[in-house]
């Protein structure tokens, strides 16, 4: 009897979850999407690949590739489930799938851009494209870590959710210990040769070098106290 009741509870919970998803209109027009976006109370996520993102994206969007499940789940776990979320892709198909996934995983309010970036542009709205920026050479990187003494390398990107999460931590670190180390930023969307050379495949990755020799490394979110300990 208890087993039967448990099964019924699970079924009812599943139906409730599906009902919650069906009650919310997932896909909204470009005009409605923009109205919500300019209110400033929404998180914005591009679920396309990094290459697609760099070719043109909505201003201030974070990025996590829906097709790369490991990366997607790692990056999006730093989003705030209590804040409304706007998602988009190229046509609206990937992002609709992502929107349903977010709702099933505890996000209270999620909206998908109908027609994706194509619909956005057809509506006369603009995308921002990353400017052609020359990447840092491996030689320049090596020179920096060999001549600057104690160096903290931050491999990250503006569109990476956990990287954004680390910004206030890095600011606090600089305020407290800025004179004791040299900060070197490696852009995870541009400095590909350097990333390959130092074997940094995860964003963010933090590495401490002393006189050119790596003495510590950690991927993902790092506590302020941990960084301070490694730089003193």
Automatic annotation (TrEMBL):
All residue ranges annotated as the Thioredoxin domain in the record: 127-232
Signal peptide as annotated in the record: 1-22
InterPro entries in the cross-refs: GlpE_sulfurtransferase (IPR050229), Rhodanese-like_dom (IPR001763), Rhodanese-like_dom_sf (IPR036873), Thioredoxin-like_sf (IPR036249), Thioredoxin_domain (IPR013766)
Keywords, sorted A to Z: Signal, Transferase
GO molecular function, one term: transferase activity
Alphabetized CDD domains for the sequence: RHOD (cd00158), TRX_family (cd02947)
Domain Rhodanese: start-end pairs: 38-129
Coiled-coil stretches noted in the UniProt entry, renumbered to this chain: none
PANTHER family noted in UniProt: FAD-DEPENDENT OXIDOREDUCTASE, PYRIDINE NUCLEOTIDE-DISULPHIDE OXIDOREDUCTASE
Annotated protein name in UniProt: Rhodanese-related sulfurtransferase
Organism: Sediminibacterium goheungense
